[in-house]
Amino acid sequence: MKNIGVFLIVFCLSWTGFYGQDSLVQAPVFPKMKSSLVMPVRIPLAELSTVVNHSVTDLIYEDDSFNDNENDQFKVKVWKTRPIRLVGGTKQNLLVEVPLKIWAQKGIGTLGMYTYQETTFETVMYFSTSVKFNTDWTVATSTQPNGFKWISKPVLDFGMVKIPITPLVEKSLKKEQQKFCETMDRQMDAQLDFRKYAVMAWNSFSQPFRILDDYDTWLKITPVSVSVAPMKIYRDAIDVYFGIQVFSETFTGLAPASSPLVTAVPDLTNVAALSPQFVLQTTANIPYSKARAMAEETFLNREFDFREGAPKVKVTGIDVLQSDHKLEIELRLQGGVNGTAFVNGIPVYDPDKRKIVLSKTRFRLRTSNILQKTASLLFQGKIVRMIENEYGIPTSELEDYARKSVEQAFNKEYFPGMKMKGSVTSLKPSQLLLTASGLTAVIDMTAALQLLVQGM
Protein backbone atom coordinates (compact mmCIF):
# COMPACT_ATOMS: atom_id res chain seq x y z
CA MET A 1 0.00 0.00 0.00
CA LYS A 2 2.88 2.38 0.68
CA ASN A 3 3.56 2.76 -3.04
CA ILE A 4 -0.01 3.05 -4.28
CA GLY A 5 0.17 6.76 -5.05
CA VAL A 6 2.96 6.22 -7.53
CA PHE A 7 0.40 4.93 -10.02
CA LEU A 8 0.85 8.28 -11.77
CA ILE A 9 4.26 7.04 -12.94
CA VAL A 10 2.50 5.57 -15.92
CA PHE A 11 2.27 9.06 -17.33
CA CYS A 12 5.68 8.20 -18.77
CA LEU A 13 4.23 6.43 -21.79
CA SER A 14 5.26 8.79 -24.61
CA TRP A 15 7.86 7.23 -26.87
CA THR A 16 9.50 9.80 -29.12
CA GLY A 17 12.55 10.28 -31.31
CA PHE A 18 12.41 6.80 -32.86
CA TYR A 19 15.05 7.75 -35.42
CA GLY A 20 18.30 9.44 -34.41
CA GLN A 21 19.33 13.02 -35.07
CA ASP A 22 22.23 14.12 -37.26
CA SER A 23 24.87 15.37 -34.85
CA LEU A 24 25.69 18.41 -37.00
CA VAL A 25 22.07 19.48 -37.54
CA GLN A 26 20.35 21.90 -35.19
CA ALA A 27 18.03 20.06 -32.81
CA PRO A 28 14.36 20.45 -33.76
CA VAL A 29 11.74 22.01 -31.54
CA PHE A 30 9.04 19.43 -30.92
CA PRO A 31 5.43 20.41 -30.36
CA LYS A 32 4.02 20.42 -26.84
CA MET A 33 1.41 17.67 -26.70
CA LYS A 34 -1.68 17.65 -24.52
CA SER A 35 -2.69 14.08 -23.82
CA SER A 36 -5.63 12.48 -22.12
CA LEU A 37 -4.90 9.36 -20.11
CA VAL A 38 -7.33 7.14 -18.22
CA MET A 39 -5.86 5.07 -15.41
CA PRO A 40 -8.07 2.34 -13.92
CA VAL A 41 -6.70 1.30 -10.55
CA ARG A 42 -7.87 -2.11 -9.34
CA ILE A 43 -7.65 -2.85 -5.61
CA PRO A 44 -8.39 -6.52 -4.87
CA LEU A 45 -10.67 -6.95 -1.89
CA ALA A 46 -8.22 -9.53 -0.59
CA GLU A 47 -5.79 -6.60 -0.12
CA LEU A 48 -8.36 -4.59 1.84
CA SER A 49 -9.10 -7.71 3.87
CA THR A 50 -5.42 -7.77 4.80
CA VAL A 51 -5.63 -4.16 5.99
CA VAL A 52 -8.69 -4.93 8.12
CA ASN A 53 -7.20 -8.11 9.59
CA HIS A 54 -4.02 -6.27 10.55
CA SER A 55 -6.08 -3.64 12.35
CA VAL A 56 -8.25 -6.11 14.29
CA THR A 57 -6.48 -8.36 16.80
CA ASP A 58 -7.44 -11.99 17.23
CA LEU A 59 -8.97 -11.23 20.64
CA ILE A 60 -11.71 -8.79 19.69
CA TYR A 61 -13.49 -8.38 23.03
CA GLU A 62 -13.10 -9.45 26.64
CA ASP A 63 -15.27 -8.92 29.74
CA ASP A 64 -13.35 -10.49 32.63
CA SER A 65 -15.50 -9.28 35.54
CA PHE A 66 -18.52 -10.94 37.10
CA ASN A 67 -19.42 -7.76 38.96
CA ASP A 68 -19.67 -5.15 36.19
CA ASN A 69 -22.81 -4.41 34.17
CA GLU A 70 -24.94 -4.32 37.34
CA ASN A 71 -23.40 -7.47 38.81
CA ASP A 72 -24.42 -9.62 35.84
CA GLN A 73 -22.18 -12.51 36.96
CA PHE A 74 -21.10 -12.92 33.37
CA LYS A 75 -17.69 -13.12 31.66
CA VAL A 76 -17.07 -13.36 27.94
CA LYS A 77 -14.14 -13.50 25.46
CA VAL A 78 -14.50 -13.13 21.69
CA TRP A 79 -11.87 -14.24 19.13
CA LYS A 80 -11.62 -14.31 15.37
CA THR A 81 -11.62 -17.91 14.19
CA ARG A 82 -10.57 -17.09 10.62
CA PRO A 83 -9.46 -13.96 8.76
CA ILE A 84 -12.10 -11.32 8.20
CA ARG A 85 -13.45 -11.50 4.65
CA LEU A 86 -14.65 -8.70 2.35
CA VAL A 87 -16.80 -9.20 -0.75
CA GLY A 88 -18.59 -6.79 -3.04
CA GLY A 89 -22.30 -6.21 -2.42
CA THR A 90 -25.10 -5.55 -4.89
CA LYS A 91 -25.49 -1.89 -3.85
CA GLN A 92 -21.93 -0.81 -4.63
CA ASN A 93 -20.98 -1.55 -1.05
CA LEU A 94 -18.67 -3.95 0.75
CA LEU A 95 -19.98 -6.85 2.78
CA VAL A 96 -17.76 -7.76 5.72
CA GLU A 97 -17.86 -11.17 7.35
CA VAL A 98 -16.26 -11.72 10.77
CA PRO A 99 -16.25 -15.35 12.05
CA LEU A 100 -16.05 -15.57 15.85
CA LYS A 101 -15.46 -18.04 18.62
CA ILE A 102 -16.94 -17.03 21.98
CA TRP A 103 -16.21 -18.29 25.44
CA ALA A 104 -18.70 -17.37 28.17
CA GLN A 105 -19.01 -18.08 31.90
CA LYS A 106 -22.18 -17.42 33.89
CA GLY A 107 -22.91 -17.56 37.61
CA ILE A 108 -26.29 -18.74 38.93
CA GLY A 109 -27.25 -18.07 42.56
CA THR A 110 -28.18 -15.38 45.12
CA LEU A 111 -26.89 -13.59 48.19
CA GLY A 112 -23.32 -13.96 47.02
CA MET A 113 -23.53 -17.72 46.56
CA TYR A 114 -23.09 -18.63 42.88
CA THR A 115 -22.48 -21.70 40.81
CA TYR A 116 -20.49 -21.06 37.67
CA GLN A 117 -20.62 -22.80 34.35
CA GLU A 118 -18.85 -22.03 31.06
CA THR A 119 -19.50 -22.73 27.40
CA THR A 120 -17.89 -22.14 24.01
CA PHE A 121 -19.81 -21.46 20.77
CA GLU A 122 -19.40 -19.79 17.38
CA THR A 123 -21.13 -17.06 15.40
CA VAL A 124 -20.53 -14.84 12.38
CA MET A 125 -20.96 -11.05 12.48
CA TYR A 126 -21.84 -9.14 9.31
CA PHE A 127 -21.24 -5.53 8.31
CA SER A 128 -21.94 -3.29 5.34
CA THR A 129 -19.37 -0.67 4.28
CA SER A 130 -19.82 2.13 1.74
CA VAL A 131 -16.70 3.58 0.09
CA LYS A 132 -16.28 7.01 -1.52
CA PHE A 133 -13.32 8.87 -3.02
CA ASN A 134 -13.06 12.44 -1.71
CA THR A 135 -11.85 15.29 -3.92
CA ASP A 136 -8.87 15.84 -1.57
CA TRP A 137 -7.44 12.39 -2.50
CA THR A 138 -8.68 10.68 0.67
CA VAL A 139 -11.11 7.77 0.88
CA ALA A 140 -14.12 7.81 3.20
CA THR A 141 -15.70 4.58 4.43
CA SER A 142 -18.86 4.18 6.48
CA THR A 143 -19.42 0.81 8.13
CA GLN A 144 -22.73 -0.29 9.68
CA PRO A 145 -23.66 -3.48 11.58
CA ASN A 146 -25.58 -6.01 9.54
CA GLY A 147 -26.59 -8.68 12.04
CA PHE A 148 -25.41 -12.07 13.35
CA LYS A 149 -25.55 -15.65 12.28
CA TRP A 150 -25.26 -18.23 15.02
CA ILE A 151 -23.24 -21.32 14.13
CA SER A 152 -24.01 -22.78 17.56
CA LYS A 153 -26.03 -20.95 20.22
CA PRO A 154 -24.63 -20.45 23.71
CA VAL A 155 -26.19 -22.66 26.41
CA LEU A 156 -24.94 -23.18 29.96
CA ASP A 157 -25.43 -26.75 31.19
CA PHE A 158 -26.04 -27.00 34.97
CA GLY A 159 -27.10 -30.59 34.86
CA MET A 160 -30.83 -30.51 35.36
CA VAL A 161 -30.95 -26.86 34.27
CA LYS A 162 -29.88 -25.62 30.83
CA ILE A 163 -29.78 -21.85 30.55
CA PRO A 164 -29.60 -20.17 27.12
CA ILE A 165 -27.50 -17.01 27.36
CA THR A 166 -27.95 -15.79 23.78
CA PRO A 167 -29.55 -12.46 24.86
CA LEU A 168 -26.64 -11.71 27.22
CA VAL A 169 -24.05 -12.49 24.57
CA GLU A 170 -25.85 -10.55 21.84
CA LYS A 171 -26.08 -7.49 24.05
CA SER A 172 -22.30 -7.49 24.49
CA LEU A 173 -21.62 -8.28 20.85
CA LYS A 174 -23.87 -5.52 19.54
CA LYS A 175 -21.98 -3.01 21.64
CA GLU A 176 -18.66 -4.31 20.37
CA GLN A 177 -19.96 -4.52 16.83
CA GLN A 178 -20.50 -0.76 16.77
CA LYS A 179 -16.97 -0.22 18.13
CA PHE A 180 -15.66 -2.54 15.45
CA CYS A 181 -17.32 -0.36 12.77
CA GLU A 182 -15.50 2.69 14.06
CA THR A 183 -12.17 0.82 14.23
CA MET A 184 -12.46 -0.51 10.70
CA ASP A 185 -13.41 2.90 9.25
CA ARG A 186 -10.54 4.57 11.06
CA GLN A 187 -7.99 2.01 9.87
CA MET A 188 -9.21 1.89 6.27
CA ASP A 189 -9.43 5.68 5.94
CA ALA A 190 -5.85 6.00 7.23
CA GLN A 191 -4.53 3.31 4.89
CA LEU A 192 -6.35 4.72 1.86
CA ASP A 193 -5.07 8.31 2.13
CA PHE A 194 -3.60 9.10 -1.28
CA ARG A 195 -2.53 12.71 -0.66
CA LYS A 196 1.16 12.31 0.08
CA TYR A 197 1.54 9.72 -2.67
CA ALA A 198 -0.11 12.05 -5.19
CA VAL A 199 2.45 14.75 -4.30
CA MET A 200 5.30 12.25 -4.62
CA ALA A 201 4.06 11.10 -8.02
CA TRP A 202 3.46 14.65 -9.24
CA ASN A 203 6.98 15.69 -8.23
CA SER A 204 8.50 12.63 -9.84
CA PHE A 205 8.06 14.51 -13.12
CA SER A 206 10.03 17.54 -11.98
CA GLN A 207 13.12 15.90 -13.51
CA PRO A 208 12.98 15.21 -17.26
CA PHE A 209 14.26 11.77 -18.16
CA ARG A 210 16.18 10.34 -21.07
CA ILE A 211 14.04 8.14 -23.29
CA LEU A 212 16.71 6.96 -25.74
CA ASP A 213 20.13 5.76 -24.62
CA ASP A 214 21.78 6.20 -28.02
CA TYR A 215 20.66 9.80 -28.57
CA ASP A 216 20.22 12.83 -26.34
CA THR A 217 16.45 12.66 -26.44
CA TRP A 218 14.51 13.74 -23.35
CA LEU A 219 10.88 13.55 -22.30
CA LYS A 220 9.27 15.99 -19.91
CA ILE A 221 5.82 15.21 -18.52
CA THR A 222 3.73 17.89 -16.80
CA PRO A 223 0.48 16.77 -15.13
CA VAL A 224 -2.25 19.39 -15.41
CA SER A 225 -5.35 18.01 -13.71
CA VAL A 226 -6.89 14.76 -12.50
CA SER A 227 -10.52 13.67 -12.42
CA VAL A 228 -12.09 10.63 -10.81
CA ALA A 229 -15.20 8.63 -11.63
CA PRO A 230 -17.33 6.85 -9.00
CA MET A 231 -15.84 3.64 -7.69
CA LYS A 232 -17.09 0.38 -9.11
CA ILE A 233 -17.23 -2.43 -6.57
CA TYR A 234 -17.18 -5.99 -7.83
CA ARG A 235 -17.34 -9.20 -5.87
CA ASP A 236 -13.56 -9.46 -5.54
CA ALA A 237 -12.18 -5.97 -6.32
CA ILE A 238 -12.70 -2.21 -6.37
CA ASP A 239 -12.04 -0.28 -9.58
CA VAL A 240 -11.23 3.43 -9.49
CA TYR A 241 -10.93 5.35 -12.78
CA PHE A 242 -8.67 8.40 -12.83
CA GLY A 243 -8.69 10.74 -15.82
CA ILE A 244 -5.36 12.51 -16.20
CA GLN A 245 -4.56 15.52 -18.37
CA VAL A 246 -0.84 15.92 -19.09
CA PHE A 247 1.49 17.88 -21.33
CA SER A 248 4.37 15.92 -22.85
CA GLU A 249 7.36 17.68 -24.38
CA THR A 250 10.27 16.13 -26.25
CA PHE A 251 13.73 17.69 -26.31
CA THR A 252 16.98 16.76 -28.02
CA GLY A 253 20.43 17.81 -26.94
CA LEU A 254 20.83 19.11 -23.40
CA ALA A 255 18.31 18.11 -20.74
CA PRO A 256 15.57 20.75 -20.25
CA ALA A 257 15.14 22.59 -16.97
CA SER A 258 13.33 20.82 -14.14
CA SER A 259 9.86 21.89 -13.05
CA PRO A 260 9.40 23.39 -9.55
CA LEU A 261 8.44 20.94 -6.82
CA VAL A 262 4.94 21.12 -5.34
CA THR A 263 3.74 20.53 -1.80
CA ALA A 264 0.11 19.89 -2.76
CA VAL A 265 -1.69 18.71 -5.87
CA PRO A 266 -4.98 20.02 -7.27
CA ASP A 267 -8.16 18.54 -5.92
CA LEU A 268 -9.77 15.77 -7.90
CA THR A 269 -12.67 16.67 -10.17
CA ASN A 270 -15.62 14.31 -9.93
CA VAL A 271 -17.01 13.11 -13.26
CA ALA A 272 -19.86 10.74 -14.00
CA ALA A 273 -17.81 8.28 -16.05
CA LEU A 274 -14.53 7.78 -17.89
CA SER A 275 -13.80 5.54 -20.83
CA PRO A 276 -11.61 2.53 -20.04
CA GLN A 277 -9.52 3.46 -23.09
CA PHE A 278 -7.37 6.55 -23.43
CA VAL A 279 -5.70 8.52 -26.18
CA LEU A 280 -2.07 9.52 -25.92
CA GLN A 281 -0.08 11.58 -28.38
CA THR A 282 3.64 11.31 -28.87
CA THR A 283 6.13 12.37 -31.53
CA ALA A 284 8.76 10.60 -33.60
CA ASN A 285 11.44 12.46 -35.57
CA ILE A 286 12.65 11.24 -38.97
CA PRO A 287 15.76 13.23 -40.03
CA TYR A 288 16.14 14.26 -43.67
CA SER A 289 19.18 11.99 -43.87
CA LYS A 290 16.86 9.03 -43.26
CA ALA A 291 14.36 10.28 -45.83
CA ARG A 292 17.20 10.77 -48.33
CA ALA A 293 18.53 7.24 -47.74
CA MET A 294 15.07 5.81 -48.46
CA ALA A 295 14.85 7.83 -51.69
CA GLU A 296 18.29 6.64 -52.75
CA GLU A 297 17.26 3.02 -52.23
CA THR A 298 14.36 3.54 -54.64
CA PHE A 299 15.65 5.91 -57.30
CA LEU A 300 19.46 6.23 -57.31
CA ASN A 301 20.95 5.04 -60.63
CA ARG A 302 17.47 4.45 -62.06
CA GLU A 303 17.12 5.07 -65.80
CA PHE A 304 13.99 6.02 -67.71
CA ASP A 305 12.98 7.50 -71.04
CA PHE A 306 12.92 11.24 -71.55
CA ARG A 307 11.20 11.16 -74.91
CA GLU A 308 11.14 8.83 -77.88
CA GLY A 309 14.47 8.72 -79.65
CA ALA A 310 16.31 10.62 -76.90
CA PRO A 311 18.97 9.10 -74.61
CA LYS A 312 17.71 7.69 -71.32
CA VAL A 313 17.78 9.83 -68.21
CA LYS A 314 19.75 8.53 -65.22
CA VAL A 315 19.34 9.63 -61.59
CA THR A 316 22.87 10.28 -60.31
CA GLY A 317 22.15 12.01 -57.03
CA ILE A 318 19.30 12.63 -54.60
CA ASP A 319 18.57 14.98 -51.74
CA VAL A 320 15.52 15.44 -49.54
CA LEU A 321 14.87 18.66 -47.64
CA GLN A 322 12.29 21.23 -46.67
CA SER A 323 11.30 23.95 -49.12
CA ASP A 324 8.56 26.49 -48.49
CA HIS A 325 6.89 24.30 -45.82
CA LYS A 326 6.85 21.31 -48.16
CA LEU A 327 8.97 18.18 -48.47
CA GLU A 328 11.12 18.46 -51.59
CA ILE A 329 12.99 15.74 -53.45
CA GLU A 330 15.89 16.85 -55.62
CA LEU A 331 16.90 14.46 -58.42
CA ARG A 332 20.21 15.16 -60.18
CA LEU A 333 19.88 13.92 -63.74
CA GLN A 334 22.27 12.98 -66.57
CA GLY A 335 21.70 11.74 -70.11
CA GLY A 336 18.60 12.82 -71.98
CA VAL A 337 18.26 15.58 -69.37
CA ASN A 338 21.19 17.21 -67.62
CA GLY A 339 20.15 19.21 -64.59
CA THR A 340 18.11 18.91 -61.41
CA ALA A 341 14.43 18.01 -61.11
CA PHE A 342 12.58 19.28 -58.05
CA VAL A 343 9.40 17.53 -56.89
CA ASN A 344 7.78 18.89 -53.75
CA GLY A 345 4.54 18.19 -51.97
CA ILE A 346 2.74 17.98 -48.67
CA PRO A 347 3.67 14.87 -46.67
CA VAL A 348 0.66 12.80 -45.63
CA TYR A 349 0.21 9.41 -44.00
CA ASP A 350 -1.16 6.59 -46.19
CA PRO A 351 -2.67 3.99 -43.82
CA ASP A 352 -2.95 1.35 -46.57
CA LYS A 353 0.72 1.56 -47.51
CA ARG A 354 1.79 2.42 -43.96
CA LYS A 355 4.01 5.07 -45.50
CA ILE A 356 4.48 8.81 -45.50
CA VAL A 357 3.88 9.91 -49.09
CA LEU A 358 3.63 13.20 -50.99
CA SER A 359 0.37 14.83 -52.01
CA LYS A 360 -0.35 17.91 -54.14
CA THR A 361 3.02 17.48 -55.82
CA ARG A 362 4.66 20.20 -57.90
CA PHE A 363 7.48 19.85 -60.45
CA ARG A 364 10.17 22.14 -61.79
CA LEU A 365 13.32 21.49 -63.77
CA ARG A 366 16.57 23.42 -63.54
CA THR A 367 18.80 22.99 -66.60
CA SER A 368 20.92 25.18 -68.86
CA ASN A 369 19.53 23.43 -71.96
CA ILE A 370 16.67 25.51 -73.37
CA LEU A 371 15.37 22.61 -75.44
CA GLN A 372 15.23 20.37 -72.38
CA LYS A 373 13.35 23.07 -70.47
CA THR A 374 10.81 23.27 -73.29
CA ALA A 375 10.40 19.49 -73.31
CA SER A 376 10.05 19.29 -69.54
CA LEU A 377 6.25 19.42 -69.77
CA LEU A 378 6.37 16.01 -71.43
CA PHE A 379 8.87 14.82 -68.86
CA GLN A 380 7.31 16.07 -65.67
CA GLY A 381 4.28 13.80 -65.71
CA LYS A 382 6.52 10.75 -65.74
CA ILE A 383 8.69 12.05 -62.88
CA VAL A 384 5.74 13.13 -60.74
CA ARG A 385 3.92 9.80 -61.17
CA MET A 386 7.11 7.94 -60.31
CA ILE A 387 7.57 9.95 -57.11
CA GLU A 388 3.90 9.70 -56.10
CA ASN A 389 3.66 5.97 -56.79
CA GLU A 390 7.04 4.74 -55.59
CA TYR A 391 8.43 7.15 -53.03
CA GLY A 392 7.40 6.79 -49.42
CA ILE A 393 8.88 6.75 -45.95
CA PRO A 394 7.77 3.47 -44.39
CA THR A 395 6.25 3.86 -40.92
CA SER A 396 5.55 0.20 -40.28
CA GLU A 397 8.83 -0.23 -38.40
CA LEU A 398 8.20 2.92 -36.42
CA GLU A 399 4.62 1.89 -35.60
CA ASP A 400 5.59 -1.67 -34.66
CA TYR A 401 8.45 -0.42 -32.50
CA ALA A 402 6.23 2.09 -30.73
CA ARG A 403 3.51 -0.51 -30.12
CA LYS A 404 6.03 -3.04 -28.80
CA SER A 405 7.67 -0.46 -26.53
CA VAL A 406 4.36 0.73 -25.12
CA GLU A 407 3.07 -2.77 -24.45
CA GLN A 408 6.35 -3.78 -22.82
CA ALA A 409 5.98 -0.80 -20.51
CA PHE A 410 2.31 -1.60 -19.91
CA ASN A 411 2.92 -5.16 -18.78
CA LYS A 412 5.43 -5.01 -15.98
CA GLU A 413 5.76 -4.34 -12.27
CA TYR A 414 7.14 -0.83 -11.82
CA PHE A 415 7.19 -1.06 -8.02
CA PRO A 416 6.68 -3.97 -5.62
CA GLY A 417 2.95 -4.56 -5.32
CA MET A 418 2.01 -2.42 -8.35
CA LYS A 419 1.51 -4.44 -11.51
CA MET A 420 0.47 -2.92 -14.82
CA LYS A 421 -1.50 -4.65 -17.55
CA GLY A 422 -2.40 -3.08 -20.86
CA SER A 423 -2.46 -3.17 -24.63
CA VAL A 424 -2.40 -0.76 -27.58
CA THR A 425 -5.63 -1.05 -29.58
CA SER A 426 -4.66 1.37 -32.36
CA LEU A 427 -1.62 3.43 -33.32
CA LYS A 428 -1.01 5.68 -36.33
CA PRO A 429 0.59 8.98 -37.33
CA SER A 430 -2.06 11.70 -37.41
CA GLN A 431 -0.04 14.81 -38.28
CA LEU A 432 3.27 15.49 -40.01
CA LEU A 433 5.38 18.54 -39.21
CA LEU A 434 8.44 19.76 -41.11
CA THR A 435 11.34 21.11 -39.06
CA ALA A 436 14.78 22.40 -39.99
CA SER A 437 16.32 18.96 -39.54
CA GLY A 438 13.62 16.47 -40.33
CA LEU A 439 10.05 15.33 -40.37
CA THR A 440 8.19 15.03 -37.07
CA ALA A 441 5.31 12.56 -36.98
CA VAL A 442 2.64 13.13 -34.35
CA ILE A 443 1.43 9.66 -33.35
CA ASP A 444 -1.99 8.98 -31.86
CA MET A 445 -2.27 5.91 -29.67
CA THR A 446 -5.45 4.39 -28.28
CA ALA A 447 -4.78 2.00 -25.45
CA ALA A 448 -6.33 0.25 -22.50
CA LEU A 449 -4.49 0.14 -19.21
CA GLN A 450 -4.99 -1.18 -15.72
CA LEU A 451 -2.99 -0.86 -12.52
CA LEU A 452 -3.38 -3.72 -10.07
CA VAL A 453 -2.51 -2.91 -6.46
CA GLN A 454 -1.11 -5.77 -4.38
CA GLY A 455 0.83 -6.04 -1.18
CA MET A 456 -1.01 -3.32 0.73
What's a quick, concise take on this entry?
This protein is of the alpha+beta class and 456 residues long. It has 7 helices and 24 strands.
What does this structure look like?
With 456 residues, the protein is an alpha+beta fold. The protein contains seven helices and 24 strands. The strands form four sheets. Strands 1, 10, 11, 12, 13, 14, 15, 22, 23 and 24 form a ten-stranded mixed sheet that branches. β4 (85-88) and β5 form a beta hairpin. α1 packs across α3 (166-191). The longest helix has 26 residues, at 166-191. It is rod-shaped, with a radius of gyration of 36 Å. The protein starts with 32 loop residues before the first strand and ends with a strand. Mean pLDDT is 79; it is low at 1-27.
Specify the structural class: alpha+beta
The overall pLDDT average reads 79
End-to-end Cα distance, whole Å, is 4 Å
C-alpha Rg, in Å? 36 Å
What's the story with the biggest beta sheet?
10 strands, mixed
SSE topology sketch:
Blueprint: E1 33-44, H1 45-55, E2 59-63, H2 68-71, E3 74-80, E4 85-88, E5 94-110, E6 113-133, E7 139-150, E8 155-158, E9 161-164, H3 166-191, H4 195-203, E10 209-212, E11 217-228, E12 232-233, E13 237-252, E14 269-270, E15 277-287, H5 288-299, E16 303-304, E17 313-323, E18 326-335, E19 339-350, E20 355-366, H6 370-390, E21 393-394, H7 396-410, E22 413-415, E23 418-434, E24 438-453
Parallel strand pairs: 1-24, 11-14
Antiparallel strand pairs: 1-13, 2-3, 3-5, 4-5, 5-6, 6-7, 8-9, 10-11, 11-13, 12-13, 15-24, 16-17, 17-18, 18-19, 19-20, 20-21, 22-23, 23-24
Helix pairs in contact: 1-3
